[in-house]
């Protein structure tokens, strides 16, 4: 190997090592900056900031509310509809049970049900549904535009199969979203997550959230 080639090879090796070092430092820093790193089990393409955002809807009492009005503590958001024959009641009951388990452990979490059925889910209909599920559950509806906007913010999907049929079914995604005041979305849960698993995971996130808040206060 001539001298030029030798030093070129050494330089390339140094660049690779330096690049790996920068990558390791960056990934370590991201992990260290993430107060929920030890709790996460899902990965969101582009980061958690890609999911969630502001919305203006109507609650089950007919009052216009924003996300800041309803997300006042750790909350679990689900998009569905009350006429759903199976999936929505089961998922909502699971979320309600997880909230009840958490309450028994000393955690306060609010389940939120956002209807994608603007034609049939009136505030009164939602109130009957949420009261059946949990005394803490908040039901939200709105205009087609408002619901579409909220759905887009949370990257959910829904499609009315036959808009002219009063008994139509609605295709929709079934993830539940854990959100915090000011922070927003932090984690999602699939349908196969049990109430106990959800409670354990949410408890981890709430503990980390509270610890970060205490650390921030002590630093002031």
TrEMBL record:
Belongs to the SCO1/2 family. The chain crosses the membrane at residues 7-26. CDD domains: SCO. Keywords: Copper, Disulfide bond, Membrane, Metal-binding, Transmembrane, Transmembrane helix. GO terms for molecular function: metal ion binding. Cu cation binds at residues 84, 88, 172. The lineage of its organism: Bacteria, Pseudomonadati, Pseudomonadota, Alphaproteobacteria, Rhodobacterales. It comes from Thioclava pacifica DSM 10166. This is Thioredoxin domain-containing protein. It comes from the Bacteria.
């Amino acid at each position: 190997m001539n001298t030029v080639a030798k030093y070129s090879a050494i330089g390339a090796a140094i660049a690779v090592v330096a690049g790996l070092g920068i990558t390791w430092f960056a990934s370590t820093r991201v992990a260290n900056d993430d107060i929920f790193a030890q709790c996460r089990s899902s990965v969101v393409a582009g980061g958690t900031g890609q999911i969630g955002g502001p919305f203006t809807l109507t609650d089950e009492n007919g009052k216009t509310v924003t996300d800041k009005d309803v997300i006042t503590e750790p909350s679990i958001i689900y998009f569905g509809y009350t006429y759903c024959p199976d999936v929505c009641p089961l998922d909502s009951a699971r979320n309600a049970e997880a909230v009840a388990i958490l309450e028994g452990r000393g955690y306060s979490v609010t389940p939120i049900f956002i209807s994608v059925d603007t034609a049939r889910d009136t505030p009164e209909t939602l109130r009957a549904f949420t009261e059946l599920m949990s005394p803490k559950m908040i039901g939200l509806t709105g205009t087609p535009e408002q619901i579409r906007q909220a759905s887009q913010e949370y990257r959910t999907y829904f499609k009315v199969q036959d808009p002219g049929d009063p008994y139509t079914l609605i295709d929709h995604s079934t993830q539940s979203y854990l959100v915090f005041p000011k922070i927003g979305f932090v984690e999602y849960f699939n349908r196969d997550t049990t109430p106990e698993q959800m409670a354990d995971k949410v408890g981890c996130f709430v503990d980390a959230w509270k610890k970060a808040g205490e650390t921030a206060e002590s630093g002031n």
